[in-house]
Write a structure and sequence with these properties.
Strand content: 15-25%
Structural class: alpha+beta
Number of helices: 9
Shape: globular
Largest sheet: 6 strands, mixed
Number of strands: 11
Order of helices and strands: EHEEEHHEHEHEEEHEHHEH
Distance between the termini: 31 Å
Amino acid sequence: MKSLVRLGAILGIVGSTLLGPSLIGKMSALALPEPQILEKLRSVPVFTITDATGAPLIATVPKQGQGQTGNASVAGIFISQKDAQAFVEQLKTRNPQLAASVRVMPVSLGEIYQLTQANKGKPDQVQFAFVPAPQQVQSAKTVLQQTGQQVNEFNGVPLFLARGGPENGYLTIQRGQQEVIPLFFNKEELLGMVERFKQQQPNVTATIKIEVVNLESVLEALRTENDPFLTQMILVPSRESLEFVRSLQPAGAGNQNPQIAPARTAPAPAPARPAPAPARPAPAR
């Protein structure tokens, strides 16, 4: 955990990626090996609270679940840097001495995933608890309620995606030479992409709908499922997160990871075409 991701590695998804939306066509099912999982996750910044040495701030809580005894060590992983900073500000009131020695640090979601898998089953395992942005949790509840579901809470970190067209296909973006399915951490940014799509293909405007799944189920599916949806999906961090990480880079540093280059502007999309609707993680309740 002390070895935080290089800043250049989490700037792989930039604003120009969100040009040229279209509807997904035929997908081929391929298993997703761990290196590909890590490639999908390493460009996503999340935020943790660390001490002066870079070690995460750990909370000791009673273990949950039937038959569980003793305590568990838990580190909070914030999706929003602003929420992480707000936690530090609250800590200044409750424990000023501790607050003086901690700071908010970005870390790759890929690193969190890798550490989780490496430490599974170990007696001293540190568990990572994701802390979603409250506004996005409320947006997720609203999306589910608009479909007629009775939802009082949303468990986990919401991810937003869109579907539409005659065959209810996934809305996609062009990333380099690939057509991919974006899952957004920020609903408002997905809506911006949807508006651009509607301008390009107004004939399918009425069919577009927003859906929501949770990050935790996606991470589990990446590890256990063989699904074409998972092969072509990408996670799109919020602009707030990317801008914060970019602000930490030295001037003129640029992208330091040669395997993740900024996506090129996509050409104008072809008309929407029929698309299969493969299985995917179910929405959290």
